[in-house]
């Protein structure tokens, strides 16, 4: 099912890296190098109503707080523009259904497609088909297996998340070589989990620490509670815990409360509003969280509009929208939490 949403007057929205800037894009409608005349890209120029464009958006089912925020932010971004008609496919975790949704967008002749694939490899072929049909594809979060499948890719930084968490723990415990560090990962079979764990281990190594106890959960509250209970039983003393995901963090914190443990501090992941409120209170073992922006699809919609209208990112001298953008993974603490709360998602 497709829902059609028409844009309204532009609002200032959440796009961590898409602020403003200088020149133009020489993209043709197929997302490649073409003969389209560049259009000056400025803050005001990009914001002004331009040529009407139809953008198709398809993402996974919103069965997780972060994914729900991804979808709602994308829809809000489409609504922010008078010149955008955003056609939203029903969220799904079925790769075959998502392929059919993209094929429908191709048949409809949309001007651009924003796609957060349930499986990047499985969606590569149909995304390539769209590109070959002259429809630029903006790939969000989960990469395709071929660079030819997307005009632009926008990603969170999973390895960087691990690095940021490890660096924060090093700052807190780097002068304690015997400190016990634990890790509660997400789903171990996912590449993103591998990247997060590798970044974490590499950062800890710089200050002589390592992961002493590690368990994996499944990004759910129940899974987080079960994994944390297992961890706490196996490790009678812990100095710091990094939990990869704030949604499963609800369960992790429940297990910590049940075990009546508070000798350690915890760092979360993703950046939910719930986690940030706990951090702000200063009354929880949760001391920080590492941001994994839930604005990625919204940024994808904004990028798709710029590409379809032959515009550029106005803070860049480059005359086209970049091929690949990786968002930052900052650490949110009590000191800077108010800066990040407005764009945080509810879990």
UniProtKB/TrEMBL annotation:
SUPFAM superfamilies: Periplasmic binding protein-like I
Keywords for the protein's UniProt record, in alphabetical order: Signal
Domain of life according to the entry: Bacteria
Similarity remark: Belongs to the bacterial solute-binding protein 2 family.
UniProt key word Signal: yes
Subcellular location, record wording: Cell envelope
PANTHER family noted in UniProt: D-ALLOSE-BINDING PERIPLASMIC PROTEIN-RELATED (PTHR46847)
Official protein name in the record: Ribose transport system substrate-binding protein
PROSITE patterns noted in UniProt: PROKAR_LIPOPROTEIN
The species this protein was found in: Zhihengliuella flava
A family per Pfam: Peripla_BP_4
Domain spans labelled Periplasmic binding protein: 55-311
